[in-house]
Amino acid sequence: MNSIRIGTRASALALAQAGMVKNAVEKNFPGVRVEIIKMTTKGDRITDIPLHKIGSRGLFIKEIEESLLREEIDIAVHSLKDLPASQNESLCIGAFLTRENPGDVLISERYGSLSEIPAGAHIGTGSRRRESQLKNFRPDILVEPLRGNVETRIKKSSGGNLDAIIIAAAGVIRLGLAGKIREYLPRDLFIPSPGQGIIAAQIRKNDTASAEILEKINDENAGMCYAVEREFFLETGGGCFLPIGALCEKNSSGYTIHGYIGDEKGENVFRESASFSIYDPLQGKKLAQKLLDAGGKRVLFDIREKENSDNKREGRY
Description:
There is one protein chain. By secondary structure, the protein is α/β, with parallel strands linked by helices. The protein is 35% helix and 24% strand. It is built from 10 helices and 13 strands. It has helices spanning 12-28, 42-45, 51-54, 62-69, 128-137, 150-156, 169-174, 208-215, 220-235, 282-313; strands at residues 3-9, 33-39, 75-79, 91-96, 104-107, 122-125, 142-145, 164-168, 181-184, 199-204, 244-251, 254-262, 269-276. The strands form 3 sheets. A 5-stranded mixed beta sheet has the order 2-1-3-10-4, with helices on both faces. Strands 7-6-8-5-9 form a 5-stranded mixed beta sheet, with helices on both faces. A hairpin with a 6-residue loop joins strand 12 (254-262) and strand 13 (269-276). The radius of gyration is 19 Å and the shape is globular.
């Protein structure tokens, strides 16, 4: 294989992540020419509506996957958390890159930590999961909707009516903006989305040449931990924009999976962790079942019912 075409979104972060895949391939295969092809997705075009209200799955990946299926590109590079847990049957993940810090961070020009922020302050986030966990931890704070690429969101943290924003650590770090971070939020309170911090290189299942190349850059541990998180996600019924969090981490005694299910107001939340010494992806499913049985099932049902009602009333179906 003499050349590889990588498809990616055109944002600075997406290009940085595609560049990481490109560099890794070129390092292992100096004779292979790698080209990055920029693409625009529905999620990039619609920037004035909260993600969960757009009413579509795969907002940031559909067009890229379609290009991959048409064989216009050989590899699609995504933030793993943007991929639905169930992929197109003709596609698969050829490589998981080593995970960056999977947590969430606080960025603010005015305050050094979430605890310092006064009651009545305004914090921006585009994530229902973060909104739920933030309201649970600080119900006295007002949460504002936030869209845009990483740079745009950071700029909004220093102007207008926002006192701070909460955002994924990985994107900020990969863009060389770690100096903007005021606090790395504790993971026992802010459990990230499944796959957060992992870059996924997606290929066609029948493309054995690309699969052999990506095998050399695959981080097995990142893939194994995500498999546990994915089981948690699937058991909850999926839903990219539901207040669901899952994080699996490897440690000296084995693995620990952290799970979260909450309502949008942060009033009814279910958060728990489980440790296991022998690797077993189904531990994610077991933890999800426990949280669902404790009350999470009712919470997610109510959110879906409200969402369906709102979509029908506003003519989205």
